[in-house]
């Protein structure tokens, strides 16, 4: 597959154009691990990742995503009967999901993440909800969890087997609920907007099972959720039976993925070229927008990136320095086209535009692939 230089941090809050354009660049180059068949960025350097209060990854401002999170919380409550139980979330981000889980289930929740901003909850943390701005360590075994949650974290780590081995030690006999983006689907589709520096790994179903097994986890269930974009696993400590391992380690073909990526890039470039001189905005100022601009070369046709997260508004897109604006600003810009970075939000975006009395062309990276 072709390589691409990208900002090493795509969801970092940049307060000036200069800051956005000066973020260090890293190389994305795809290879495959011979042990687990995990597809990964061979050039990923974990020391470039600064997880602190300026790392802004939350999607919880979206009603679509909140509905998904509520569904996850409901299923966790049914599966594990969490009232009064100790729940540890590793890689909890800013803690929105964990706070909602504690409130809905009555669980006693602890979150670990170096990007936690403890001031965000204004002293609302109680015995049932606690955030600790730390990375996972063996010392956290003292928390003695009844359930361990790890959501959208594993794909960011250079050594997922080592991390999962440590997580097994901390979990003790507690089950693990884990989810990651479906990297196999991304590669099959040539989804360049989802191939970015911070994603060290791209897990298929088979390679995720094999990676967990290499760290001593037995997978009970594996499901695909959220418009087919997320792989969700319940696992327990212990070596899996041979019958539970995939018959073939993996079917991800990097040659086919490279062809799909080139085709998708060509289709996207043609879509933009056909709209030269027209004001276009991206909807979503997260990693997909940053990756798309890196793969496509910046694109002067893009005037701004819209985001409903108020913490992002007024900031600038890492790499290109495109301004990040609030949806209400679109009434002044009156764009000819809005390109939604994640097709899961098409309905939500269409409703928002309608409410503002705007009727631009509405597309997504999925829809512009011929």
Characterize the structure shown.
The structure is a single chain. The protein has helices at 17-21, 63-80, 96-105, 160-171, 183-189, 205-214, 254-273, 287-296, 330-333, 346-355; strands at residues 4-7, 25-28, 30-32, 39-41, 86-90, 108-112, 129-132, 147-151, 176-181, 201-202, 217-225, 230-237, 280-283, 302-306, 324-325, 337-340, 361-364. It is α/β, with parallel strands linked by helices and 370 residues long. The radius of gyration is 20 Å and the shape is globular. The model has no long low-confidence stretch (mean pLDDT 92).
Number of helices: 10
Query: What fraction of the residues are assigned to beta strands by DSSP?
Result: 15-25%
The largest beta-sheet arranges its strands as 7-6-5-8-9-12-11
- Average pLDDT level: 92
Largest sheet: 7 strands, mixed
**What does the radius of gyration come to?**
20 Å
> Low-confidence stretches at least 5 residues in length (pLDDT < 50)?
none
This entry's quaternary arrangement is single chain
Order of helices and strands: EHEEEHEHEEEHEHEHEEHEHEEHEHE
Instruction: Give the termini separation.
Output: 21 Å
Helix content: 25-40%
Quickly give the structural class: alpha/beta
Q: Please provide the count of β strands.
A: 17
User: So what's the overall shape?
Assistant: globular
Descriptive labels:
single chain; 370 residues; alpha/beta; seven-stranded mixed beta sheet; five-stranded parallel beta sheet; 10 helices
Summarize the structure.
With 370 residues, the protein is α/β, with parallel strands linked by helices.
